Amino acid sequence: MTVTHPAAPSPSSYRQSIDGCLSDAIGSHGLSDAEFEHWLDKLAPHLASLQDDYVTGALPVLRIAEDTADLDAAEAALRKLVEGADTVVFFGTGGSGLGGQTLAQFGGWNLPGVSCCSTNSVHKLKTRFYDNLDPLTLAAGLKRLDLETTRFVVTSKSGGTTETIAQLLVTLNAVRAAGLEDRIPQLFLGITEPDKPGKKNGLRALLASLGVPMLDHHTGIGGRFSCLTNVGLIAALARRLDARKIREGAREVIDALRAAKTPAEFAPAVGAATAVALSKERGIRTLVMMPYNDRLGRFSEWFVQLWAESLGKGGEGTSPIPALGPLDQHSQLQLFMDGPREIYVTLVRVASAGHGDMLDPELARIAGQEFLGGKTIGDVVDAQAHAIGEALVQAGRPVRTVDLDTLDEHAMGALLMHFMIETILAGRLLELDPFDQPAVELAKTLTRERLAR
């Protein structure tokens, strides 16, 4: 086949370019046209298989963007849950936490000066996430909460996640100690799989015994792929985001999948082929996800789990690193630019030129930074994000760019779906199952055995 341009047509929400990964741009450290075409060609049957999976419904993540019934149920459950509340706490680890955090941060959560206002200016509902298990953090967090006006959303697909169950048990005791035991059904909401014959679901059994309402976790979509299900979207709803627009953005990528006749016509396929080819042909071992926008900081963490847990199997896989620009220009960039030649960087850039406060020319002159005078903060970030891409190219370091004109719900949904499909296709190209995580089960088993002694 002949590739006339290294970047596949992207959905309107974003533009992807892998020019900085090719030998034309970075010399011998990049992929030659022949190498890139070889790996892109190898994706053709996998792209066709993925299209069949959509038609047959064999891969539910490809159909989730079309669903509405689960959103209706989630909206109704959340509306009832937050009556009289000022804070919602989310318990859930790994994929049960990161997807919701990613969308919540896009909606203003955990951003200095933003988290208490902006999207929540009318509702004023605070959101808190406890995904890691630490006795001091959990105890201190519960102590600070007004339990009477706090609500808890507890998520575990299997219903047997040890960390989440432990958080729930401690919280139930705190609620009882506060004299609120009779209100437990109004203070909690569970998200877990429906009952299955012969399979124990501890979370469902416990919550049912307490009269706590529950939403069904999609049985065909695992944790790290669940950001567009009720698991991730209920956090988006708590931040007053439009969940339907998020799914519309994801649907845009699915529409591109269905329309693509070759891998070269589908941006996630181009991304998957590039990542695998750089690994196999140039020894790339590390992938950096580096957005230049505070609202995408948690997105990097979400990507790290998605890529690492999906592809790190049987000796395969590359190690993902989260970064945030321009902050990590002052910490990790030295390694990216001048460390071992085994690093591939993805820059996610949100158009920011002209945004933010203007910088006073006279004060900039006194500070010895005349070039800042008359520019906005957004101009500075825009210049940095583009300059880093150019610097990486000049240093012969593979770099991909993903550009968004606007970071809104539609674009966020498209971005999430792009990287989920890119990961799935990379897994199939590596001839492994991107949906399981067999190695981590041993640690879970040994944990249970140790606690049972």
Q: What is the string of helix and strand elements? A: EHHHHEHEHEHHEHEHHHEHEHEHHEHH
> Oligomer, anyone?
single chain
- Please tally the β strands and state the result: 10
From the helix content, strand content and strand pairing, which structural class follows? alpha/beta
How far apart, in Å, are the first and last alpha carbons?
Answer: 61 Å
β-strand percent reads 5-15%
Q: Into which percent range does the helicity of residues fall?
A: 40-55%
Architecture overview:
It is a single chain. With 453 residues, this protein is of the alpha/beta class. The chain is 47% helix and 11% strand. The protein is built from 18 helices and 10 strands. It has helices at residues 23-26, 33-42, 44-56, 69-81, 95-106, 135-144, 162-177, 184-187, 202-209, 230-238, 243-259, 267-282, 297-311, 333-338, 361-366, 377-394, 409-429, 438-451, and strands spanning 15-17, 87-91, 126-130, 150-155, 188-192, 214-216, 286-292, 319-322, 343-350, 399-404. The strands form 2 sheets. The chain has a 5-stranded mixed β-sheet with strand order 1-10-9-7-8, sandwiched between helices. It has a 5-stranded parallel β-sheet with strand order 3-2-4-5-6, sandwiched between helices. Strand 5 (188-192), helix 9 and strand 6 form a beta-alpha-beta unit. Helix 2 (33-42) crosses helix 12 and helix 5 runs parallel beside helix 10 (230-238).
